[in-house]
Design brief:
Elements (H helix, E strand, L loop, with lengths): L5 H7 L8 H14 L5 E4 L6 H10 L8 E5 L8 H6 L16 H4 L4 E5 L6 H13 L1 E2 L8 E2 L3 E6 L3 H6 L5 H7 L2 E4 L9 H17 L5 E2 L3 H7 L5 H15 L5 E2 L11 H4 L7 H24 L3 H8 L3 H10 L10
Parallel strand pairs: 1-6, 1-7, 2-3, 3-6, 8-9
Antiparallel strand pairs: 4-5
Length: 333
């Protein structure tokens, strides 16, 4: 690990790989947080490895033998919220033909990982807040209040403090979640880690395939290090996997053009031989595309959350995405 030492070695088996100072600082916080039970809030851009960090905190701590239960908060419908979280007893509602344990019970003794907490509806936020206050809950239709031993780890790629100021996220819930903060650096902030990660991904692919190994061409370093990696580690891993398949004949991966960035909107509208109207239209189009790309990255492609943050209707967001050829699904995985 390029001299990263035993700390990075401990985490590499959990697929958290890197040797940069910013990354090692984050690993050190994970190591400390793993030893206690306080709630952790993991923040970072899409693709930085927030679930991997949550799993590391769980599996390196005393709860490692208990369940790790991940929950996508954006996929929890209000109509089934309490049932999904707390479970229900037989006959609690029309389709409740048998007693069913909820996510809270499934995670007993272990860790409940709440991914994309920024996508929680107001009702979901209230439900979670009440549970976090004393870990008490009651299954839907049940007569007995139960208490559970579970650690909660949340993650987000949004600015929850800004959302709180805008009335989009409860401040009291934020205070309950943000006990132990963990910020995962973007790949842009992890100096030297791009090639370390690329080689690690390639080594894994070579090991899985067997036979003659594929290698990275020496020209890859310049192109990869010049790229801004808006999709972070996930984007890099997808690139290596795609190029690995495409280079099956030559067994050599070459990449080019990754460092090319779009010109600023103002610079795009300064052509002296262009009419004001067309220059303005081009600048607006550039702004819209850049804004939407950033918005989709922040919200992991969640249209509802993007609508709330931007103040535009869902239909307007969808229309603009189609207009600029931005595929929402590429931000969701």
């Amino acid at each position: 690990m390029n001299g990263a030492g035993p700390l990075a070695s401990d985490f590499s088996r959990l697929n958290l790989i890197g040797a940069s100072r910013a990354f090692l600082n984050a690993l050190e916080l994970m190591r400390r947080y793993a030893a206690c039970d306080a709630t952790v809030l993991i923040q970072g851009e899409t693709g930085t490895g927030k679930e991997l960090a949550a799993r590391a905190i769980h599996y390196l701590g005393p709860r490692c033998d208990a369940p790790f239960v991940p929950v996508n908060c954006g996929a929890l419908p209000d109509s089934l919220l309490e049932s999904e979280f707390f479970g229900h007893v037989r006959g609690a509602f029309t389709d409740a033909r048998e007693t069913r344990h909820g996510l809270i019970t499934q995670a007993r003794g272990g860790t409940l990982f709440l991914d994309e907490i920024e996508a929680m509806t107001p009702r979901a936020q209230v439900t979670l807040l009440r549970f976090l206050q004393d870990k008490d809950y009651r299954p839907v239709g049940g007569a007995t209040v139960k208490n559970t031993d579970v650690r909660v780890v949340g993650s987000t790629n949004a600015d929850l403090r800004a959302m709180s100021r805008q009335g989009l996220f409860r401040a009291d819930l934020l205070f309950r979640l943000d006990v132990l903060p963990l910020h995962l650096p973007s790949l842009r902030q992890r100096e030297g880690d791009v090639m370390v990660l690329a080689q690690s991904f390639l080594d894994r692919l070579n090991s899985q395939a067997g036979g003659e190994p594929t290698r990275l061409h020496e020209s890859c370093a310049a192109a990869m290090n010049a790229h801004s990696w808006p999709g972070n580690v996930r984007e890099l891993e997808n690139l290596v996997q795609r190029e690995y398949v495409l280079s099956s004949a030559t067994r050599t991966i070459r990449v080019s053009g990754l460092g090319e960035e779009a010109p600023p909107a103002l610079a795009a509208a300064t052509a002296q031989d262009e009419e004001f109207k067309s220059a303005k239209a081009r600048a607006v189009a550039h702004f819209e595309k850049q804004y939407l790309t950033d918005l989709m990255s922040r919200t992991a492609g969640n249209i509802s959350l993007a609508s709330r943050i931007s103040g535009k209707d869902r239909s307007d967001i969808a229309r603009l995405l189609r207009k600029h050829g931005i595929e929402r699904l590429r931000f969701t995985s």
